[in-house]
Each structure stands twice: as C-alpha cells, then as structure tokens.
Amino acid sequence: PTPTAPCILLNLARNVLGCDGCGVRFLPRCGNGTVGGQPPLKHYGITSSISLALPGETDHLLTQRLVEAMKLFGVFEDEEELNHRLEVLGKLNLFVKEWIKEISKTKNLPLSASVSGKIFTFGSFRLGVHTKGADIDALCVAPRHVERADFFLFFFEKLKKHEEIKELRAVEDAFVPVIKFKFYGIEIDLLFARLALHTIPDHLDLRGDFLLRNLDIRCIRSLNGCRVTDEILHLVPNKENFRLTLRAIKLWAKRRGIYSNVLGFLGGVSWAMLVARTCQLYPNAIAATLVYKFFLIFSKWEWPNPVLLKQPEESHLNLPVWDPRVNPADRYHLMPIITPAYPQQNSTYNVSTSTRAIVTEEFKYGLSVTEDILLGKADWSRLFEPPNFFQKYKHYIVLTASASTEESHLEWIGLVESKIRVLVASLERNEYITLAHVNPQSFPGSKDESDFVSMWFIGIIFKKVENAESMNIDLTGDIQAFTDTVYRQASNVNMLKDGMKIDAMHVKKRQLHQYLPPEVVQKKKKVGGQVRSSLDGSRLDSSQDTDCGTPFTSPTSASRPAATTSRWGSRANTGSSSLPEAVKSAPVLVTVLALMQRFGPPATPQRLSSKELPDPLSPIPTRTLRVVKNAIKITLNR
C-alpha cells in the first residue's frame, strides 16, 4: 500500500535523526539484553570492569518491579506520543532543508538545489530518557555559507509565518544562543551551528573533532550538546539498560531535590555520565543491579577525583579543556565530572561545598534504601520518597523575587535563580555557617494587586561554638553582595525594569507556615521507625536562636504594605522591612539597621569563571532604584 504522509515523516525521522540515540526501540535485541546479538565488550572506560556477572532471575524480577514503580510517576511516554514527536521533528527537518535552499538561492550559490542542512537532537530525547510533555533540545546544522545572522533573522521570520509555531522567541545574546518555540504542541529549544562544509549530509557523525576546525566559539558551544550525548551513547555497553537506569536515577534526583545545575547540584548530562560510568563497570548488569551499584560506587567516591568515561584526547585545535595540571582554577572544582567529547569540560563546575555535601548524603541514603530493597525489606517506592526539606533545618533564608508584570517576572526569576549559587558560595565563606542548602523548587509568594512573586528557601546550619553563651551572626554583607550582583547583571543586559525587586528574610522553622501551605510544611512521618540524621551526624543546631525573622529588603520595597493575608490563610510578609504580626509579638533580640548608603561591588565568588559574573567595575544601577543595605543579624543562644 502507498504510505501516508505521517508514515513518510516518521520514517524520515527514524532514518535522519539517529533514532537509536533518541530512545526509539528499533534495534534488534536479544533476550539476554545484548544489542544486535553481540555480547558487550569486557573493557569500557578508563579501567577494566568490576564484574561481568550476568543477571539472574531475581535481578529481572527486581527490574520489573522498578519499572512498575516508575510508571506511577509518568516517566514513560507511550508509542503514540513518541510517534508524534518524531513526526514533528521530521517536519522541522524538512522545514530547515527548505530554508537552507532558499537562503542559498538568495546568495546566488551554484548548485543550490543540492545544498542541505539537518536537525540533530541531544539531551534527554537523544539519550532516550525524556518524560511525558518534556521539551526537545535540537540543533540546526547548516553549511558554511549560512551565517548565524541568517538563522536569527530570516529563519526566525520563516518560523513566525508558520501557523503551527507558537510562543516564538529568540535569545540571541545568551551564552548558547537559542530560538525557543512550540511546534504542533511540542516545546523545542533550537540551537544553531554552521560547519565548514558545502552541504550537510543526512548521515553526518558530529563526533569527529575535525568538524570543529575554524569554527567560532558559539558554534562549538552549540555543537557540544550533540557531541557529548552521542559520545555517552557510544561508550556504554548496553543502551537499553543504560536508559532504564538513567530514568530511575533522574527520577530519584528530582524527587530528592538535587537535580539542578543552575543551583549548584547536578544537571541531566552529569547524571547521565555517572550512570554511564556505572554501566561501564558492570557491563552485563541490568537496571535494578545498576541502580544499586550506582549508589555503592558514588557513596564511596573520593571527590574531587574526577569521573571520566574515557581518557581525554588532544585534538591540537587549541581549545580550552579541563586540565588541573595546566589550569589552576580547575584545581578548585569540588566534584568534577568530565564530558567525554573534545573540548572536555567539567559539567559540575557550579557545585559548592554545601551541594556536594548534600548530594553525597543522598548517595549514602540511596545506598541504604537499595540495600533494603535487595533484601526484600522495602520496595522501590521508598527510593522515590521526597525529603521534608522544611523539617530538616532550624533556620532558613527566604529569597523573594517580585515584578510588576508577568512577563517581567519570568525574566526576573530566571536571572535571580541563576545567581542564587553566588549567595550560597558567599554564605559558605561565613565563618559561622556549616552548610547552606537551597531547595531547587520555587514557590509562589503572597502578592498584592501589582506584583508577581516567587520564593526560594535556603536551609542554614550554623557552627557550634564551645564555651560561648551566645553568638551574634551578621549576614548583611552576604545578602548585599548577592543583591548587588543581581541588579548589576540585570542592568548590564538591559533587563532591569521598575518594579523588579529582591527581598531576603531570615525565619525559623516554626515560622514557615506564614509562607507555605500546611501540606508542604507539615512534619513527615517516620519511615521504618527511623529518623534520618543531619549532615553533621547530630542535631542540626544545638543552639537556641532568638532571632524571630529578620528582613533584608530590596531598594524600593519600603513603600509596600507591612503584611498581607497570604493564600495559606495566615499573615505573611510581602517584602517590606516590617515584620509579620506573629513575629512582632515574639521576643526579638536582633538589631535591624537601615543604612541609606551605596555599597561597592562585591568580591568575585570562588569557583565561578569571569563569564558567569558581571564586570566588577560596572556601576550598580541607579535609575529609579537605589540599593539600600539592611542588616540580617542573628543571635544564637547556647
């Protein structure tokens, strides 16, 4: 029978987009888990395997139970949704080829009819671990005569005219420039790179280092996602086992609140590389065993020894690579996980002392749970139980970002969130702070008629000071450095608008109900009669703090009302320097100072490259805003 148009597009996507890499199950697989009937090699990565043991009946049973537990969280996409994605990518690929031919004709290129481009995928979709409703990371690869300006001007205009393109926006000045849009209901982030080739063949392998010759740095960054993803898939012994294990680990990391590269935890590519290394060490193991081995390996890993999937190779292209022998800054990376494609980079350069401690603790907790699962004392659902962040600490910093319009708010919270790790690094350098734990989840804040508000919470552990009746801790400078950095960055990129504000408030655990709904704050029940210990193995803080909610407010918040009724039915601070009613009635042993003076630029935080921070010499924005220094001073009694 004559194939229909959707069938043609589906086949095109399968043939052109490298569907083994994007998770579509088209390769023949044998009953023992091997690919194409060939047993896996005995040596993967930079060392020999730890075990070549084949899975037993119990392993298969545990893996099936793992799959059933994961289904409850909607991590698997059904065949119909997957085919829809492939059809959309096939249409986008044809759309790009059509545009490449058009732009070639406008430049009077000979034989323009034979010139072509191509769409490549990377990230979770390419790895085959995307979830329902997830976006697709894609790369438009064009031949040498198509320039980046053509992509962001002419291709953008072509997309704008398509009736199925929705929510189209270009971010041309980003570190990795991107066009974002929805195409037939699928969110797509599309990067651009041009290669020094006359045309882009359909079966081009982007892993070849020669393709990077004479490319500008933005093209190299854009290509990096595809090159790293393809290399990871090439280096694992069994793709299907790798994918199922990675799905489980990503679900666990998200549920446990440690999945966020921007906040200093690990992002998707870092988790993928850790799982890939586990697969290399146990090439014949299946998912249930690999999940357990994952926790066994990395709960005992001696950081900062790097995780490598292959020996780094020198391609003599003179591009900067991660190498602590040559680059002094690389020696300060705390949890290095090195990408396998040239130029090799550390995917976890954002990790701080606190986030490493938190992730390490979660590795140990995961090992304890999986040991119980293997012994039949627990089921897989226990591994995916979220922690109760709001019962874990006695002290919290509440960060509030507000803006007067929804559009401004979306821009503002993106910038504020990207700089929270600067505040965490500053808090870590405070001599009285042991740990600063930011919750990756943001929460809607109480807002008046003109503001859109988001909140983040940072749990704080203070050091114990022996032979001291009380201890005064001043966090003013840490907060001031953070707000200066955010306002300066917003000014430098022309984002700063009237109404954009940052507020910071120190609160105790018992005051959290003023900011959050009861079901979020309520104490979690004990599991198996045990209570998890804190990061330092004891109570989170032995001191009796007497501070009852000290605010640090943004410049223009003084005119706001003192408090409003929150959506949770209690009084909550909305950003002014006044305290909530429940706090005012409590004894307060804290001084709140309002120094109406400008502060100089903060010192550059450690472990952050100059590209991540604004120019320290650039002025703090004034316009209608004025940076005001309020104090957060906390008194802790023994």
Automatic annotation (TrEMBL):
<dbReference type="InterPro" id="IPR043519">
    <property type="entry name" value="NT_sf"/>
</dbReference>
<dbReference type="GO" id="GO:0046872">
    <property type="term" value="F:metal ion binding"/>
</dbReference>
<dbReference type="InterPro" id="IPR011068">
    <property type="entry name" value="NuclTrfase_I-like_C"/>
</dbReference>
<dbReference type="GO" id="GO:0031123">
    <property type="term" value="P:RNA 3'-end processing"/>
</dbReference>
<dbReference type="Pfam" id="PF20750">
    <property type="entry name" value="PAP_NTPase"/>
</dbReference>
<keyword id="KW-0067">ATP-binding</keyword>
<keyword id="KW-0479">Metal-binding</keyword>
<dbReference type="Pfam" id="PF04926">
    <property type="entry name" value="PAP_RNA-bind"/>
</dbReference>
<feature type="domain" description="Poly(A) polymerase RNA-binding">
    <location>
        <begin position="450"/>
        <end position="526"/>
    </location>
</feature>
<dbReference type="GO" id="GO:1990817">
    <property type="term" value="F:poly(A) RNA polymerase activity"/>
</dbReference>
<feature type="domain" description="Poly(A) polymerase RNA-binding">
    <location>
        <begin position="388"/>
        <end position="446"/>
    </location>
</feature>
<dbReference type="Pfam" id="PF04928">
    <property type="entry name" value="PAP_central"/>
</dbReference>
<feature type="domain" description="Poly(A) polymerase nucleotidyltransferase">
    <location>
        <begin position="45"/>
        <end position="236"/>
    </location>
</feature>
<feature type="compositionally biased region" description="Polar residues">
    <location>
        <begin position="545"/>
        <end position="579"/>
    </location>
</feature>
<dbReference type="GO" id="GO:0005524">
    <property type="term" value="F:ATP binding"/>
</dbReference>
<dbReference type="InterPro" id="IPR048840">
    <property type="entry name" value="PolA_pol_NTPase"/>
</dbReference>
<dbReference type="GO" id="GO:0003723">
    <property type="term" value="F:RNA binding"/>
</dbReference>
<dbReference type="GO" id="GO:0006397">
    <property type="term" value="P:mRNA processing"/>
</dbReference>
<feature type="domain" description="Poly(A) polymerase central">
    <location>
        <begin position="241"/>
        <end position="385"/>
    </location>
</feature>
<keyword id="KW-0507">mRNA processing</keyword>
<dbReference type="InterPro" id="IPR007010">
    <property type="entry name" value="PolA_pol_RNA-bd_dom"/>
</dbReference>
<dbReference type="InterPro" id="IPR007012">
    <property type="entry name" value="PolA_pol_cen_dom"/>
</dbReference>
<keyword id="KW-0694">RNA-binding</keyword>
<keyword id="KW-0539">Nucleus</keyword>
<keyword id="KW-0464">Manganese</keyword>
<comment type="similarity">
    <text>Belongs to the poly(A) polymerase family.</text>
</comment>
<protein>
    <recommendedName>
        <fullName>polynucleotide adenylyltransferase</fullName>
        <ecNumber>2.7.7.19</ecNumber>
    </recommendedName>
</protein>
<dbReference type="GO" id="GO:0005634">
    <property type="term" value="C:nucleus"/>
</dbReference>
<keyword id="KW-0547">Nucleotide-binding</keyword>
<keyword id="KW-0808">Transferase</keyword>
<keyword id="KW-0460">Magnesium</keyword>
<feature type="compositionally biased region" description="Low complexity">
    <location>
        <begin position="528"/>
        <end position="543"/>
    </location>
</feature>
<feature type="region of interest" description="Disordered">
    <location>
        <begin position="523"/>
        <end position="580"/>
    </location>
</feature>
